[in-house]
Amino acid sequence: MDRRTLLTLLFAVLVGSTNLAGCLGNDLGDIIPERKGIPGGLTLACLTSSSYTSMVVEVDYEPGYKPLASSTDLLVERLTSVCDKPEGISIEFQEVNFGQQGDWSAEDVRSKAWDQKTASPLEGSTLRWQLIFPAGGYEEASVLGVAVDASTVALFGDSIDEAEGPLGRPSVEDVENSVVIHEVGHLLGLVNLVYQSPVDHEDADHPGHSNNDDSVMYWAVESTDIVNFIFGTLPNDFDTDDRNDLAGLADGSIPIRDQLWSRV
Length: 264
Known about the structure:
Number of strands: 6
Distance between the termini: 31 Å
Number of helices: 7
Structural class: alpha/beta
Number of domains: 2
Helix content: 25-40%
Mean pLDDT: 85
């Protein structure tokens, strides 16, 4: 077998193998396209520390759309409570111009976000996720945020501002806090995105969401239906079923699929 044929076969094996994704080095980045995965595709990399001992959340925002400090502080708190990162979880801010005209599609979010990523989601011993806060709104006007792959989320500030309820309740701050945690919950695989919970807490009419309105993963949280919480407290934390699912995924008692990195 000549050298060219051998390299071609090696390339095919590497691209086709899901188990190798967590150990691909930067040296291969130019010849093997980065695998983006699905929401929940880096759940194990977050929940465990066997390979990734620290985590960075890159926040890219257009001028005038920087998220509130309460949202990013709460995000670190929630991630720290469920993800095993002994060297810590931090936020990196970057002001950018996405150059997007008109409404955003999921593919727009994915391509524009990846153009701005400062590093690979799996780099050395650091796991990196990315939240973008662009100008404009999603193509479905009711959507406040969207998770588009294993490491990327978009939050639409204009839509979040418009979702403030009558008399300021829920407030813009409350809405943003909840939507940020909700979308990152999807990056954690909630609900049933990359596993099947032993508890029936997924909303039958809204797959990937909780049927418990006390959970931040409740289906209405990522849409303009959030104003229905005017007479209650807007959830911004995972409920017991969510946390039990994440604990089961972390200890291996709940099987998981579609991972870009595997502990096996």
